[in-house]
Amino acid sequence: MSIDSKYFDSIRIRSGKKTRSESDIPRCQWKGCIRSGTHRGPVGRNREGEYLYFCITHIREYNKNFNYFSDFSDGEILKFQQDAITGHRPTWKTFSENTTRASQHFSHLRSGSASYRSRLRYSFNLLNEQEPARPRQRKFKTLEIKAFATLGLEEGASSSKIKEKYKALVKLHHPDSNGGDRSSEGRFREVLQAYNLLKQAGFC
Known about the structure:
By secondary structure, the chain is mainly alpha-helical. About 35% of the residues lie in helices and about 5% in strands. A two-stranded antiparallel sheet has the order 1-2. A hairpin with an 8-residue loop joins strand 1 (about 40) and strand 2. The longest helix is centred in the last third of the chain and has 16 residues, at about 185-200. It starts with about 40 loop residues before the first strand and ends with a helix. The model is unreliable at about 100-105 (pLDDT under 50).
């Protein structure tokens, strides 16, 4: 269709955005106000998800005087604040009932701060103070396993054993130690490569 067509001006594009009619907007719920309630405020405790609707003037007044803890005692307010740190989820004591030391409840410290993390580490150390920590042994890579086997050692052998075995094999297979005989030169290279791999991996 040409833009000069008489039908071109009659085309209307429907907007994808739905407009809210005035009849759908509630009236301000402030006593005596007849303006539209375009702003909402919370009803209060135990009625979460329910709202009152006010105009801009009265929502400001409502929010200024709104107090969620109006009927709370000081103890209830403190407990609510402590539970809010953990999202009102149940928490458990760090120590077992049979522990001789007094068990401390850390729920009020769960803020992710460095202080909390240090205290939490301290509590776990108390649990394990009679049991020495065991070093975590990582999984060996395929080339590392092969390198240990080339040197004739068990996986995870100590640094001193690796060095001791390496020196013995070098002395055995180096051409200078065999009167210039190069028959075991290939074996010498394997030993050298295995030792360098273990050294770069931090085993020696």
